[in-house]
Amino acid sequence: MITTKGLTKVYRSRGREVTALDGVDLHVREGEVYGVIGQSGAGKSTLIRCVNLLERPSSGTVTVAGQDLTALAGRGQRAGAELRRARSRIGMVFQHFNLLSSRTVQANIELPLEILGVSGKERERKALELLDLVGLADKAKAYPGQLSGGQKQRVGIARALAGDPKVLLSDESTSALDPETTRSILQLLRDLNQQLGLTVLLITHEMDVVKTICDSAALMKGGRVVESGTVSELLATPGSELAAELFPVGGEPSGPDRTVVDVTFHGDAATQPVISQLSRTYNIDISILGAAMDTVCGKQVGRMRIELPGRFEENVVPIGFLREQGLQVDVADVQTPAPAAALLKEGAK
Amino acid sequence: MTWAEMQPLLRDACLDTLFMVWWSTVYAVLGGLPLGLLLVLTDRGGLLQNVAVNKVLGAILNLGRSLPFIILIVWLIPFSRMVVGTSIGPSAAVVALAIGAVPFFARLVETAVREVDHGLVEAVQSMGGGTWTLIFKVLLPQALPSLLAGLTTTVITLIGYSAMAGAVGGGGLGNLAITYGYQRREDALMNVTILLLIAIVTVVQIAGDLAVRRLASRGGRQAAPVGLRRLLPARPKPAAAGTAAVAAEPEPALDKAV
Ligand SMILES: Nc1ncnc2c1ncn2[C@@H]1O[C@H](COP(=O)(O)OP(=O)(O)O)[C@@H](O)[C@H]1O
Ligand SMILES: [Mg+2]
């Protein structure tokens, strides 16, 4: 639904150059919620603003719903009619809501429809319908200044949906909200994604957001996408930084010459008594350093960090046993010499 | 001089002053609003970025603002004669007042429009809004309270300028104060004139502030305009308090950031 190819953005100001995006290839499939996560300054906002060409990429292409937007951009600062029409089919929500304080809630939602040239009656009908959808039917005549942060963002979402977009872009839409409101807004986005088949590209610096609603995620660092994929793919990728962040387990080895292993289990494997089997079969003592069960994108996932006596070379067979049981096994880097760890990752692939 | 003698003089002078202020305000808005907007739009990063136009326009407006008004009037005498056929009287004064007020108001418009949050412009661009939409549905409505406050300041400045114009033959209350109050030592008339000027200025300021406050009471304004703040120093502003509260909310889950 959204594809970027080799997207690069270089800001030039007074002789200095900042490469905010450095060859970003992103592929967001229709109907999914795709999260881009990264630290402040990683280039997330630049990326999402390039998707609807609020920011003109220095090079690369952006395709939304099969339409090459970069081709519509033209040369000058101003957006041509075709680009503006394409934008009206892409909704956008913002961290600071960006509602017009001079207009009522209803008039804010009607604004995109005014731009589209929809008649007054039809605008009103649509605005009230959208307000109902986001649960603010009683706030039509209020001004944004009279609403709470969460309510403002609901209005922002209703406004973004006014043009019946297929795609919704969200730039840190929950970052200015408290945790509870964040959850309710994320739930709303999830519902809209499922009810309307809306494709959502959201950027955030909060792992919880990705964990709660994303089907896929990408990690950005210094203007590049360093990891991406569906959440299950990521969780199944040995050594994935996103997976580790999505689902961290801690625990330090109790001494030298131990092998620390992270075991991840999805679905069925969670019910097998694998650890006791392992212990009995190979007659070894296993310590559990840390463990957690969690729901990631609606799926039960468990993670456990265990410690086996002896170095890795002595534990090849038990680790093989765990893999045979359909578990994902990562030998943790803790106290393992770096080259060996790298080799292991290669071997695991 | 008796009150009966003063009354017709005062009435005529008042009408002349109102005539000068009204028409010069009309021209100040007609000229200053588009010029102030243009100044913002053509600036670097603006919607109609055009550095050359911006520089030239800025220089002209600065020139108009840096000339002392009294010099401007004298300098414009030939021009006034050309436009309205005379260089004395209220009509002639309106020419100079308008030309003096346009750059003044234009700069206030510029400030007011610049204050509009760029996020709003982006939001409306993201829905496909073009330059006209942005001007008429975002920039002007959002800047309206500041524009009204600027207009109030302009009108009050024009009342002062019109009195100066009176000194060089423009008519109005200024003229009355000079010719009768100063040259003929009619102290009573002088004092009444001053009271009238104060009354007019006060009425304009209160009316302007009321209008601004009405707009601001819709809530969500980032800050009350200057005029309002001056009149109501101690009153807590709900709008500003709301904004502060939002800003002060902790950013949740920052510790969980990647
Ligand atoms: N308009 C701009 N001019 C110059 N540099 C910019 C501009 N916008 C963003 N940048 C720079 O680009 C980088 C990425 O910024 P941004 O996309 O906002 O990051 P994020 O949203 O991930 O915090 C930063 O180093 C930032 O300073
Ligand atoms: Mg950002």
UniProtKB/TrEMBL annotation, chain A:
GO molecular function, one term: ATP binding
Top-level division of the source organism's lineage: Bacteria
Pfam family, one: NIL
Gene3D superfamilies named in the record: 3.30.70.260, P-loop containing nucleotide triphosphate hydrolases
Membrane-spanning intervals of the chain: none
Keyword vocabulary terms for this entry: Amino-acid transport, ATP-binding, Cell membrane, Membrane, Nucleotide-binding, Translocase, Transport
Domain ABC transporter: 2-247
Name of the protein: Methionine ABC transporter ATP-binding protein
Species of provenance: Streptomyces abikoensis
Organism lineage string: Bacteria, Bacillati, Actinomycetota, Actinomycetes, Kitasatosporales
